[in-house]
Design goal:
The protein is of the alpha+beta class. The chain has a single domain, classed as Glutaredoxin (3-Layer(aba) Sandwich). Helices cover 57% and strands 10% of the residues. The protein contains nine helices and four strands. Strands 2-1-3-4 form a four-stranded mixed β-sheet, with helices on both faces. α1 links the parallel β1 and β2. The radius of gyration is 18 Å and the shape is globular.
């Protein structure tokens, strides 16, 4: 059994942003640990045979209204990015690079906020460089690392492994091989992890 929630996400997903903001609130209260699992949502959709909402006009319109409604209800600062869809492959690789440099959480927060809180055009190289410089990251050297084959392969492997586990979209929360898909299923995942933590506490108490 594990005492953490695996959080599968892509910066391109507004629902992933909402799920991220919610799961961070739980994490700050020290209820459990989060294992951040970056994936390429486009690649996952292709492999799973899923047509993204962004390519279906009625669904896209609904998604814009829905994410605005949810974020307002949950008191999450949110702007549906007018430059959507955002090309996030290098940002997702950046998470892996940031993990090696021990600033992964900061990186995830800043990129999510740039896209879905501030509504920046993160398809524009000038803006991308500015966001990274504000994190004291040298954009040129950072994104040079993103072209490293090992980084590419690791992200691809994370995406492939997600599919093998039965994951087909983002955000997805995984607890002990149980899949909870969608930001509205986070509380279900939290309930599951609480049961596990409670079980561990009982074991600890009964076996001093």
């Amino acid at each position: 059994m594990t005492k953490f929630i695996e959080f599968y996400f892509d910066f391109s997903s507004p629902y992933s942003y909402i799920g991220y903001k919610e799961i961070r609130r739980f994490e700050k209260n020290n209820l459990f640990k989060i294992k951040y699992m970056p994936i390429l949502l486009g690649g996952l959709h292709n492999s799973a045979g899923v047509t993204p909402a962004a390519f279906i006009s009625l669904k896209k319109k609904y998604m814009i209204d829905d994410t605005n409604l949810i974020s307002k209800k949950k008191n999450i600062k949110f702007i549906f990015n007018s430059y959507f869809p955002i090309k996030t492959v290098n940002f997702m690789r950046g998470i892996i690079i940031a993990e090696k440099g021990d600033f992964q959480k900061i990186y995830i927060e800043k990129i999510f906020d740039a896209i879905w809180r501030d509504g920046l055009n993160m398809n524009d190289q000038t803006i991308i460089e500015k966001v990274h410089k504000n994190m004291d990251i040298n954009p040129e050297s950072f994104f040079k690392k993103a072209t490293d084959q090992k980084i590419k392969d690791k992200l691809r492997k994370l995406t492939d492994n997600a599919l093998k586990k039965g994951i087909f979209g983002a955000p997805t929360f995984l607890v002990n091989k149980k899949i909870f898909w969608g930001q509205d299923r986070l509380t279900y995942a939290v309930d599951e992890i609480k049961k596990i933590i409670y079980f561990f506490s009982l074991c600890t108490t009964s076996n001093p």
